[in-house]
């Protein structure tokens, strides 16, 4: 159960709302190196929005979740970014959301494999690479001109001062590691031998201004690509490789500089928060929840298959109006021989239909023309013809446009103008396939939401959530 220190800051019930401010933190601002546009409402607000960004010396513990730290500076950076998007949750709200996402993320990692959580990564970016790019985009948005000038001063215009050694292999070297570009691949991924060869091919040895050194291999660059990027590498595109290498180094330098401003812990926490969000989103998708609730979910399909007829009946009785449908229409029509006549007749008809019968008697070529085009009541059929479909789709008390009848040749086509005078509604039968499908879908989604809510409650009940004692650094969280 949650335990707090003296002067606790209570965990708000609002933490249950996973998709709140932080859930909106998909960062389109600067998707570095992947050809995405940088224009956004965020950047439009940059010039007019002064940002009060945290200093490393001001960082403080806000909470601990089973011993894992959540710090003030990481939350402030999130809040600053959201303020540019005209969303500004309070720090307590943000803290609670970050705590909940941390719990969901840890559960996701323990319960499912990466392939189960992120099946799309076969063609999309790996989640770690996507989060790294979002982190860099967030930092470059928040620190904007300061970061650019700092990198120019520390690394030079071409980043040369950060490079200890660089080797860009020729096409033959790339082919030796990645294989023949003419080879047909069912899936663009490296075999074990290709992975080993790509890992041995060191492209860049760099030094960060903070003093750390590192190396980037071909395997590192390959792992950061979506399927289009992997195809470019397998096609031995050296220009693309060079651009990706520079992008990676620029990202590392950006994170290094920001870590000296807000603190290493704050930037690491920020990245973890972004990754937690991806894991939480993937976990919701496993339950069949989220932005695309009708996407494939084995769990949702299983819940649907277990819905009983008694549950369907109860759901139908409780919300019968959801199954309201149009049963009959009382309609009139005018049949015409060609489009030119049809267009002319359509212009002659009054909007209120007061001359419809007169125009039908004068121009219609249908057998019912003498009766003003009256069709009487048309009932819904299981297999309706095209004319019935047209009549049932037509709003009442309005003349339809002239519609060409289905015909193999223009010579045999005719044109119809329809007016529906009255509609009568009923309901889908309780035992119909429509009711069964819609009810099972709704019942399964409701059960999935209940299961997910119960999971969140269990995770919070089991976790040791310690909230920081109030100090001058944390007083703003009140």
UniProtKB/TrEMBL annotation:
Every PpiC domain range: 326-422
Catalytic activity line of the entry: [protein]-peptidylproline (omega=180) = [protein]-peptidylproline (omega=0)
Pfam families from the UniProt entry: Rotamase_2
First and last residue of the signal peptide: 1-33
KW Isomerase (keyword) present: yes
Keywords in alphabetical order: Isomerase, Rotamase, Signal
EC numbers on record: 5.2.1.8
Alphabetized Gene3D superfamilies for the sequence: 3.10.50.40
PROSITE patterns: PPIC_PPIASE_2 (PS50198)
Entry annotated with the keyword Signal: yes
MF-aspect GO terms: peptidyl-prolyl cis-trans isomerase activity
Family: Belongs to the PpiC/parvulin rotamase family.
PANTHER family to which the protein is assigned, alphabetical: PEPTIDYL-PROLYL CIS-TRANS ISOMERASE HP_0175-RELATED (PTHR47245:SF2), PEPTIDYLPROLYL ISOMERASE (PTHR47245)
Protein name, UniProt field: peptidylprolyl isomerase
Organism of origin: Tahibacter aquaticus
């Amino acid at each position: 159960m949650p335990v707090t220190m003296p002067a606790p800051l209570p965990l708000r019930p609002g933490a249950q709302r996973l998709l709140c401010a932080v859930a909106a933190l998909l960062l389109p601002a600067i998707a570095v190196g992947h050809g995405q546009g940088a224009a956004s409402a965020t950047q439009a607000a940059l010039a007019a929005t002064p940002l009060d960004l945290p200093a490393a010396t001001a960082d403080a513990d806000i909470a601990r979740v089973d011993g894992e730290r959540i710090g003030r500076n990481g939350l402030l950076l999130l809040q600053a970014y959201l303020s540019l998007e005209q969303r500004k949750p309070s720090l307590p709200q943000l803290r609670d959301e970050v705590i909940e996402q941390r719990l969901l993320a840890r559960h996701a990692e323990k319960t499912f494999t990466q392939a189960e959580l992120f099946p799309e990564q076969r063609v999309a970016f790996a989640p770690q690479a996507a989060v790294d790019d979002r982190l860099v985009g967030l930092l470059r948005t928040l620190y904007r001109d300061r970061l650019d000038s700092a990198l120019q001063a520390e690394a030079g215009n071409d980043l040369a001062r950060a490079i200890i050694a660089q080797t860009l292999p020729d096409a033959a070297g790339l082919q030796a590691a990645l294989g023949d570009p003419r080879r047909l691949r069912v899936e663009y991924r490296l075999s074990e031998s290709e992975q080993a060869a790509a890992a041995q091919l060191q492209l860049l040895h760099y030094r960060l201004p903070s003093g750390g050194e590192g190396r980037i291999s071909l395997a590192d660059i390959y792992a950061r690509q979506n399927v289009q990027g992997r195809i470019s590498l397998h096609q031995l595109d050296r220009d693309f490789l060079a651009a990706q290498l520079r992008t990676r180094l620029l990202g590392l330098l950006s994170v290094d500089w920001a870590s000296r401003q807000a603190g290493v812990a704050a930037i690491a926490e920020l990245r973890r928060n972004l990754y937690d969000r991806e894991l939480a989103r993937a976990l919701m998708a496993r339950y069949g929840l989220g932005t695309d609730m009708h996407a494939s979910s084995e769990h949702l399909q299983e819940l649907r298959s277990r819905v009983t007829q008694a549950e369907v009946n109860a759901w139908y009785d409780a919300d019968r109006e959801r199954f309201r449908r149009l049963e009959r229409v009382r309609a009139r029509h005018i049949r015409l021989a060609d489009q030119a006549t049809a267009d002319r007749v359509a212009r002659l008809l009054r909007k209120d239909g007061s001359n419809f019968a007169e125009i039908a008697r004068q121009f219609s070529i249908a057998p019912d023309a003498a009766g003003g085009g009256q069709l009487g009541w048309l009932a819904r059929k299981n297999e309706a013809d095209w004319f019935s479909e047209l009549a049932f789709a037509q709003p009442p008390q309005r003349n339809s446009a002239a519609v060409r009848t289905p015909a193999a040749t223009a010579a045999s086509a005719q044109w119809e103008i329809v007016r529906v005078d009255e509609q009568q509604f009923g309901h889908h039968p309780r035992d119909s396939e429509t009711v069964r499908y819609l009810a099972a879908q709704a019942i399964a989604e409701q059960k999935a939401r209940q299961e997910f809510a119960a999971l969140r409650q269990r995770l919070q009940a089991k976790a040791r959530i310690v909230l920081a004692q109030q100090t001058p650094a944390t007083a703003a969280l009140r």
